[in-house]
Automatic annotation (TrEMBL):
Residue ranges occupied by any RSE1/DDB1/CPSF1 C-terminal domain in the UniProt entry: 921-1164
Localisation per UniProt entry: Nucleus
Gene3D superfamilies documented for this protein: YVTN repeat-like/Quinoprotein amine dehydrogenase (2.130.10.10)
Highest classification ranks of the organism: Eukaryota, Fungi, Dikarya, Ascomycota, Pezizomycotina
Main location: nucleus
Pfam families recorded: Beta-prop_RSE1_1st, CPSF_A
Organism: Aspergillus flavus
Name the record gives this protein: Mono-functional DNA-alkylating methyl methanesulfonate N-term-domain-containing protein
Molecular-function annotations in GO: nucleic acid binding
Amino acid sequence: MEIEDNLFSSDSHPRMGLLSRTLIPSPIIQWILPARLRSEHQNDVVFIGERSLQIKEAVSGFHLEDVTSKSDFDSNIMAAKVINVGTELPWEAQMKLGASAAPVNSEPQIGLPPQILLLSLASRELVFLYYSMSSDQFIHHHRPLPSDVSTFERFGRNIAVEPRSRAIAVSASSDYFGVFTLKQPPVLQSQMAHHQLDPISEERFFRVDGDIIFMEFLYPRPEDDGKILLLLLVAHDQITHAICYEWDASEHLRQASPIVTKRLLPPEDRLPTMLIPLTKTSSFMLVTTSTMAVYKNRLDPRRQPSRYPLGLPDRESRKSPLWTRWARPLRNWLYNQKHDDIYLCREDGQISYLGIGNEGEVENQAHLGQLCCDVDAAFDILHFGNEGGDLLLAAGNTGDGGLFVQKARDHPRCVQKFMNWSPVTDSVIVKSSNQQFPLSADIASDRLFVCSTSSFAQGAIVELRHGIEAQIGLVVSLEGLSGTRDIWTMSTGTNGGVIVLTSDPMSSVLLDLPADFDEEICAIDEADSGLDCGSQTLAAGSTDIGVIVQVTERAIHLGATFASMRSSRFEYGYDQSITVAAVNGSASLIVAAVRDQDGLHLHAKRLTPSGDQLSLTDVGEPLRMHFEPVCISVLTFDFGSLICVGAGNGKIFLYVIENESITFMSEKTMDVAYNEDISKAIDSLAVINKVENGPLKKFVLLCGLRSGILVPFGVTLDSVNAVSSIVMTQATPQRLGHTSLNVQSRGDLALLTCGQGFWQISCAHDSMMPDCTLQRIWITDQNNPAYHPRSIHSFSVANFANSDVEGLSNTLFCIADGQLMVCTIQREEKTVPRRIGLPGSATKLAYSQYLKSLVVAYSRTEFDTDADPIKRFTRSHIEFVDPDSQQAICGPEDKLRPWRPHGAAGEKISCILEWTPKKGDEEYHFIVIGTARKNQQDRGRVIFLQTSRMSSDPSQIECNVKYVHKFEGPVYSIAPYGNFTLMVSTGHEIVPLEPKFSQTRWLRAARYPVPSPAVSMSSHEPYLYMSTSRESLMILNASEEKLVLHAYDRQKHDGLSHVHIGGDMQLTLASSRGGRVSLLTGRRVTENDKMMPVAFCEAHLSTSVTKLSPGTRHSTMPTSSQVIYGTAMNGTVYRFLTLKEKEWRLLHLLQNLCIRDTVICPFTSKRKRQRNPAGYESLEFQPSQMHINGDILNRLSIRGPSYLMYMLVTEEFYSPSTPETGSPQAIYERFLELSKDLLGETSNPVEDVMKWLKRTLHVGF
């Protein structure tokens, strides 16, 4: 295969690429659908977002737990419905058939789901899918929709499912719709039993004139059971018709002649907000802003609709909230014969309950209360045994959603929240203070804060974090817990409960926690436990027979948890003391370092029960230790036990217990590669990934240093000759903090703490050197969304093999903030938001480095109810918020807080920034605020606030207004320039503004007119960069005390934000509306036209990036690129990395391999696969080709090196007739060439490339 060598010649046009990665997907939930997609025994609920779906399972106690997710659609989801495919008819069909009706004679397939999910994608295709538990994957079938329909028609905007799941209908927003008949349930069940799915039997497309507002199937009467009724509401020329298509289900769809009935709707029903099919008499209900109208017997022109009133709008707000969602609760079969009950939900969360009689009339209507959340998107009912109440699921585009319990004659009660931080109005990056350590790993991550609003005027500041959530389920407050050094948990409690042992330097406490944590928690005294509560515990554990082992400085205590066994203790001599110890419960082994007058010795003892007595027997002779031990870890193999001892000098000593004797194996010195004077003492050891393959043993040893450094080792040994065969290979050390690092194993994973940080670590040990991945653990409190522990003193993971406590296998016990917390650790990493509530709708957000505080602008609305008409005032307020605040912010009416400024009614805060001008040795600190007003003569103001910490209470910030400068036009953005100047975008001009003590005096002519407002500005002397609302990026030269045009983007887009990267290429990353992100250069700009060259790269994202912010490059990233974060209004967070040519070439090849692969990109069109052949680089440069989609590459990273090798060598996609696709040999050779160019010569290029890719894509929040 020939590749042009000079394709990217550095002489003429050097190339730069851009790697985008969705760090945090949008939290918006479009639909919540109860759907048993795994099996009939799981109470599954599907949460459908903008481009992904997630399956949650309802468990006892009104709680939804995450199960799995799917996010490889690569397109927006426009509509979703559930299709019943069980061979037993759904309850709606049984109701219509009558009491004597028998179910379909086929028995349901055991273990198969009774339902599948139907989606319509913006890429104009239908997707049918379910989840196969036997193959542990989603099984899907997709059917492209007609491509001759314009994209603007949005084919698939409406979908409907026939009540008996015999057909589905799909429509565009206007003019077109299609009907698909489905195969019989037994056929579909047979397909699903073989992990296949092809549900469509026939299809037919129709055309109507007008906009299709709604489309639903109606319920046929029992006597018309063989009929299929499809109803459409079509608007055309300001009138709306209801059109009903009726045909026989037994006919072939293509040969059927549907009976079409058309009825003109009265003006009051012309634009309904909901169309609800009723189960009685083929009726349907239209809901408008003020009434409900029931049309009976399809579209019988002889019958006028029955009308019923709806609730009146709130007088205070003068709003008319729309009734936007409905759901049908599940009732028993006999009740359904004569009733049809429906929940109605208004967009402000108000819910009503309708009781509909046998003839389709509304018999009763009850207002049930408020859900206290916006409901303009998702609303449904979970059919789950719940003590006589209904479980309501609700969510919206703004504000949180939730799971609510609705009992008869009661208000809804929220039992679980679904946090939503959209719409995002602004964002800010708070950079880590640990950037002076270049080898720092995750602690160098940036903190991302966004501010959001809601229709309830309850805005918030949300810290967006990524990692593993540990949700608090129980908090135990005891005196003295803040001094706790260690905690151990043992599965020997009462009735399958947990024994918790905590220890401080002076004493120990023993607690008995019941299994369900509902009963009373008891403290166990010394007499009952046989343990020593008056001494510090050095090590503890429990054996398989239920004996609790406690090691103190002077003795080993054995506490029996059952009456037939007596407790005992083994005391050391007066001149002996234990310095460090470890307990291995499975081997009943206690290992201790004992100090006496002859020095330090390593002792090992084994617990052996004898009748009702517990005794300890020595294992071999004590071994002399010529070093100071700090920690011990013991692991067992089939040949014996291995003892790992961490020393104060940074060495690891290994001993083996074989044939009841102890033998020294080897020692290993760590290389931490730090030049600074640090402690190399090993404070903790943990073993994970233990693998026994015959005589060959492998495991990963994690060492936590006192200086906050994690050092992993890959260890291999041969049990035939363990002493001589052991090999220890050190991986790269990572600094996680500056205090002692505590690490504990949890099966194949380990947990570790260092300072305020909490991590989970997993290690792949396929090669000699382990490849470790860190994930943050975030402790959350459902009752306090702002909570996060300030310090974690100690923790213990419940590793219980006992089946009675299997549910505790993911339970974390930790001492934090002086309390014992019992947390449930989630299985998968995800977004873990932390929310600080505000007393209004947040609009702008900034961070003050001087104050170490967030500065937020929010608006509050007040009403003058005495006026007629009622007057409404909206004012903007400023507040200073501690980023680590543990509680919501109070309103300005709180008299205990310092004074805060607020704007005039109708004045909006458009920008906030910190400004620190300097004059000689003096430094001034201002918070500068730009505002915009509509009705005043001076439509813009720049307000200078002088701020400082209060001397009497440093936790409080005081401020006062120092200067106010007024402008004729509204202020859009402000940027500091030089030492004394602010560049202000006001109206359609840029104005330099300097304080009185400024040494610079700008000329009056320095004002620069711009064609459209500059909504974002930044300065990099002598240039001023501007994102304008209509002309994209513009650059002004601010030299010689005046502003002149330097360069502008040759393409005119609606600019939003930008970040100037700089460097030799003078790079700038700019975003504009429509999802475009461009990488532009300021070089090669001519004086003639001042146009910037064509963009190096253009990324076309699914949503517009409204704010770009520079970030910190983590040491784990192998590339030297710049890191930039982008936030979108829908809550999505992107990360952008600039790529050099070699990096882009390799990633481009990997991306093309992924695009052609039907597993990684199952929904990529055939045309796109052919347009991106894996072995071919286009000679014609296009900026969009330089964009690399990190979301696609992340799917490859998850599958590992073996899958990459398969993609490189497979012949599945090669055809000799199309040689441009590349033969497997040519593609593999190309891969080796690109890998060598980027990483150099390596022994295993495939594995090393995957490690590099994994580190590049790693999420570090």
